[in-house]
Specification:
Blueprint: H1 16-31, H2 38-45, H3 49-55, H4 59-79, H5 89-105, H6 108-114, H7 129-148, H8 162-179, H9 186-203, H10 207-220
Helix pairs in contact: 1-6, 4-5, 4-7, 5-7, 5-9, 7-8, 8-9
């Protein structure tokens, strides 16, 4: 109808927190280091300093959330797949690591720029603290399921540290991928497969468990 104004759809407001995170990543990529101060950073970003503090209290806090976003995206991606529920615990961990590495690829330049070349696998870096908590919670559910299906065996003392061992595996795979120069990161894929299979082979029932059971039997029937 003539004379009728066409209503425009309102533009979706940009997420301030995401805008700050994106700007931080861009700054690190362009300058090779984190900003000198929050004041200078928000000035260049052309936002009020109070807006920054509404969402973050430091650059370290931004880094933690960037990594946490990648972790949460990985979990959401694999759990939304219809076949996920049919996976064994071993397959779920494999799916996590393969998808995790795929997600990291889109931020590889930032990761290589911001993560120290040498990582000590026994120490969790500050920027992975949130990821560690989320990952260990996810692994706890995975291990509970694995015990019910007898994919892993409950052992005194040792089984309480399975989640710690898998977290070390997480750090190992991250460090391996950062140094991987193979085509399409084929070596990292192989490292994931071999390390996950080894972990479940060690956590599962093996010859040592059979020997212990036999020893108990002999002791009880001497």
């Amino acid at each position: 109808m003539e004379g009728t104004a066409v209503k425009k759809k309102p533009r979706a407001k940009a997420n301030p927190a995401q805008k700050i995170k994106d700007a931080y990543i861009e700054y690190v990529l362009e300058n090779g280091a984190k900003p000198a101060s929050i004041f200078k950073f928000v000035k260049e970003l052309k936002v009020k300093e109070e807006l920054f503090y509404d969402h973050f209290n430091s650059f370290e806090n931004i880094e933690k959330e960037i990594w946490s976003d990648m972790f949460e995206s990985t979990v959401q991606s694999i759990t939304s797949e219809e076949v996920y529920g049919d996976y064994s615990a071993r397959e779920k961990l494999l799916a996590f690591f393969y998808t995790w590495i795929e997600n990291l690829k889109s931020n590889r330049s930032y990761i290589l720029q911001s993560v120290p070349k040498k990582m000590r696998p026994e120490i969790t870096p500050y920027y992975l603290e949130r990821v560690r908590h989320g990952f260990k919670d996810w692994v706890a559910d995975l291990l509970l399921e694995a015990k019910e299906t007898e994919e892993v065996t409950t052992r005194p003392v040792i089984s309480d540290r399975y989640d710690d061992a898998i977290w070390l595996q997480f750090l190992f795979i991250l460090g391996f991928w950062m140094k991987d120069d193979s085509k399409s990161f084929e070596k990292t894929d192989a490292a994931i497969e071999k390390s996950v299979n080894l972990a479940f082979d060690l956590m599962g029932r093996g010859p040592l468990d059979a020997m212990v059971d036999f020893g108990k039997f002999l002791f009880q029937n001497r």
